[in-house]
Amino acid sequence: MDLPITSSAVSANHSYDLIDCDVHPLMQGGMPSIYPYMTDSWRRRFERKRASPAEMPMRYRHPNGSVPREDARPPNGGVAGSDPAFMIADLLDRQGVDLALLNCLTSLAIAGGQASVEESVVLASAANDYYLSEWLPRDPRFRFAMTVPSQDPLACAAEIRRIGGHKQIVAVSVPPLDILMGNRYWWPVYEAAEEAGLAIYTHVAGAASVYISGPRQGPGVPNSYTDRYLSQPLMAEAAVISLVFSGTLAKFPRLNFIFAEFGFLWLLPLLWRMDRVWRGLRHDVPWVTRSPIEYVNGQIYFGTQPLDEPANPDDLEKFLALLGGDQLLFCTDYPHWDNDMPGTTLRMLPAETQRKVFAGNAVRALRL
Amino acid sequence: MSATNPTAVQPRLVKAGVESEFPVGKMIIVELERREIGVIRLRNGELRAILNRCPHKGAPVCRGLLGGTWLPSTQPGQLEYARDGEVLVCPWHGFEFDLLTGAELYWTPPSRLRTFPVVVLDGDVLIGL
User: Fold this and answer.
1) Cβ contact A246–B76 (<8 Å)
2) CATH assignment at residue A221
3) pTM value?
């Protein structure tokens, strides 16, 4: 299809007060929504095999039956997140969001390990084209994390080069595989994203600890939704270590990385640990030429959600004073059950830190 | 040393051995006045005397590896070994020290080995304590 490379509705040089870096739209009509964006031959294949995104295994289904909020269903009764008009009213207008970064988890699931490699390439492009055609034109405040078929890094690069110039695309959402993020398998993806000026966006995509192709979150098999949910940050921690010590951050110095929905309180001890170990074992990885803290602070950003809540809220402020607020991106995770709304999130922070967390850092991370 | 100015801080020269006992590239640990001191002759012929105590956590640093290091490189996988014989690696946490200067390598601000002046007089190696 022909895609608009620029949109007149999107203007530059805005100042922003509230940028939401993790919002989850769903295909309004499920998988068939994206069938118009592929060839007839591929459509017939998916129809005949009754393709659909896989359900979670029973043990990992949400204990209350649904990850999307029941109270955020659009008026037509569809699943929360499936109606752009309702999302615009319920999130953007109601919460005063200046920009919302859309990241579709269904796209990630079908472009990751659930589909065959060949299928995933077609599905990723079709899903991207669906959002480019049916969501992004609906509101100039929408930004988009395009999905890439992570089982084929060259196809990822081709997809980035195909649509990465669209003004509302600001990031590349890469379905995680059981390949650490610093591994040179990903370099063609990073090269294309760096060229296009897009951040690499990483978010759980349903495959972790479920599929062999998905990432392991940590040792063993998480027993329940709760166990699995709580182990997600382990995956991010391993990814940060990999990005730094593989030399990948050094190799792509203009590339930013965004970790969404992994929290961030685990970061501070990791930074200290990485720095201490690098001091002694630097010669093992001489391509890491600076302190790991400098690499992370220069190129990796972390979503604020899900925000941990110590018994004394002041403890969070003390912690952030140690961590510094320059790497944090406000995220609602709307419309999921564990979302954080802007009015009740991190408002105890000093005004200057709030300006960074709620907008300034995102402008830098996403080159807005 | 001269005793004419007893208030001036002057190192006292204490004999660590004779020159032939200090071949190039071998760390010789001597005990002088209850202090363990590592003495090493570098490839350029100069002698260094180092307190056998790492500034990090007190490890016997002079018993660590002697060798070179891999220089900071510009690409993952690119290795360049250099400075052979000029680097002392602490046996505990692996901090690397430049034997030419005593300074920790590649860390800002660097920690420093405690070093002592060394002189050779009439074939004797003397350490300034």
Assistant:
1) yes
2) 3.20.20.140
3) 0.93
Comparing CB atoms, the residue among A184, A280, A286 nearest residue B70 is A286
Q: What is the ipTM of this complex?
A: 0.88
pLDDT tens column, B75-123:
999 999 999 999 999 999 999 999 999 999 999 999 999 999 999 999 9
Q: Does A97 map to a domain?
A: yes
Q: Sheet harboring B118-121: ordered strands across?
A: B13-18, B124-128, B118-121
Q: Which two tokens stand for residue B62?
A: 């002079």
Q: C-alpha angle with apex A127: A126 to A130, nearest 5 degrees?
A: 85
- Residue A4 domain-assigned (yes or no): no
- Say how far apart CA B37 and CA B14 lie, in whole Å: 12
Cβ pair A250:B76 closer than 8 A: yes
Domain count of chain A?
1
Q: What is the pLDDT of residue B10?
A: 75
What percentage of residues in chain B have a pLDDT greater than 90? 91
pLDDT of residue A219: 87
On whether residue A14 sits in a domain, the answer given is no
Instruction: List % helix, strand, coil for chain A (3-state, nearest 5).
Output: 45, 10, 45
Q: What is the pLDDT of residue B5?
A: 55
Residues 179-208 of chain A with CB under 8 A from chain B are 184
- Domains for chain B: give ranges and CATH numbers: 13-71+78-128 (2.102.10.10)
Residue A56 inside a domain? The answer is yes
Range of the domain at A268: 19-365
